[in-house]
Amino acid sequence: MKPRVLSLRARIAGMLGLLFLVGTLALLFAAQAYGRLAADKSYDRLLAGSALSIAETLSVDRGQLQVDLPYAALEMLSAAPDDRVFYRVIGPGPSTITGYDDLPGWQLPSGRDRRIALDEARFFDADYRGEPVRFAVLGREIAEPGMQGWVWVQVGHTRRARDELARELVLGAVAPITLMTLLAISVVMWGIARALRPLQRVGEDLTGRQPEDLQPVVEPVPLEIAPLIDAINGFMRRLAGNIEALRAFIGEAAHQMRTPLASLYAQAHVAADEDPEGLRRSIAAIERNAARLSRLLDQLLIDATVMHRSDVRAFEPCDLLDLVHEAINEGVPHARRRDVVISTELDQAPFVGDALMLGEALKNLIDNALKYGSTVDGSVLVSIRAEEGGYVVTVADRGPGIPESRQAKVFERFVRGDGVGSPGAGLGLAIVRRAIASHGGEVVLANREGGGLEVTLRLPWRAEGVES
Question: What is the CATH number of domain 315-468?
């Protein structure tokens, strides 16, 4: 079952929606805190004014503290429906002169903090008679004959009007916050749809194409999507190149197989009417063409195998010196093994790679050296040595060599050297180059002094990207 994957639109919208939700909640909490603070500041001024009005009426008459309570100041606080006002005057000393003597107390200032200006009221909250009340306290120092000390005025006001004002402020802020949030979400969704429209056009372009249409995507896209389009175009270029190479390979393979098959058919047709001597010649020709066709098919299978394994790159530890010995034992007829000489100072050559690909590459090189390098001294020299960063394997013969102008061309499929009389498919060096290139190595051809061809393989210790 195909796993369900969220679309880009859903992912972006989800992340931005979460961001907006957090931002909206933060704004609501901020609005609530601001509303409460604004309501407290508004009513605290009235509360402090009432306490100050009472403090200003304090006087001393014949050694007694007199309070002329200004009820108008208290009426400003009680104007709100259902709100109540409480007050008391204390001092000098702990006794209550007037007002509610059971009001919640407060911590009297001490030391240098005792000198409190008349306009520096102090506020605190406390529960009184079953509901929260906001209190203001301020002091006045009395220094009259017969009475000295501090007198404290405490005025309290229930929070109903304050809380109602705070709620109104919050509700007044919620409407624009909600409107702006909805507007922002709408703009974001429109922006997401517009931003993803180029991808939709690219998808429609690719969907409407014919299977053989591998032209680059030319749809204009934003800079952030350009790397994806470049990757798609690069992939299609490689795919087009592989398809073209496959078509050429199939055409060349069909052409190469057509010749021996036609010869087989002609020789078989002629053999039906030949005398015994002619029949033997026809059978020999049939055998040669069958061997040629068999070798061509073997090379085609090896080429396909190397092509597949070079893409898979399933590399494992092996020994390069062992691979050289195996290539000689498996690829060289027993009668000609004395014609191949191995030269090395290594006892072993640990390597990480594909043993099958490297073995086929070595077989092809040694076979080509024996077949096309008609030797003077009767030997093909295979040397292997270690160098900084890897190994160098060389296969050298004393044949006619390959002109420098043709050396790059002979690595192509079905291309053979000039003046080669031995049968072959022209796939050997193409197989060698692909196998070595898949290991991060290189193949170098050079004509030897005194005649002959020298093929050098340079292989790194470990192909790039292969794990230990």
Answer: 3.30.565.10
List the chain domain ranges. Answer: 10-166, 225-312, 315-468
- Which tokens in the block code for residue 200? 């939709």
> Which pLDDT tens digit goes with each residue over 438-447?
888 999 999 8
Tokens of 276: 């015994």
Q: Taking the CA atoms of the chain, what radius of gyration do you get in angstroms?
A: 50
CATH of domain 225-312: 1.10.287.130
Question: What is the C-alpha to C-alpha distance for residues 150 and 341, in angstroms, rounded to an integer?
Answer: 120
Q: Is 285 helix (H, G, I), strand (E, B) or coil?
A: helix
CA distances from 284 to 24, 216, 424, 425 (A): 93, 54, 18, 20
Residue 142 in 3-state DSSP?
strand
State how far the Cα of 379 lies from the Cα of 131, in Å rounded to an integer.
113
The tens digit of pLDDT for each residue in 428-440 reads 788 888 889 888 8
Q: Is 315-468 in the same CATH topology as 225-312?
A: no
What gap in Å lies between CA 331 and CA 339, rounded to an integer? 13
pTM of the shown model: 0.48
Cα–chain-centroid distance for residue 400? Answer: 55
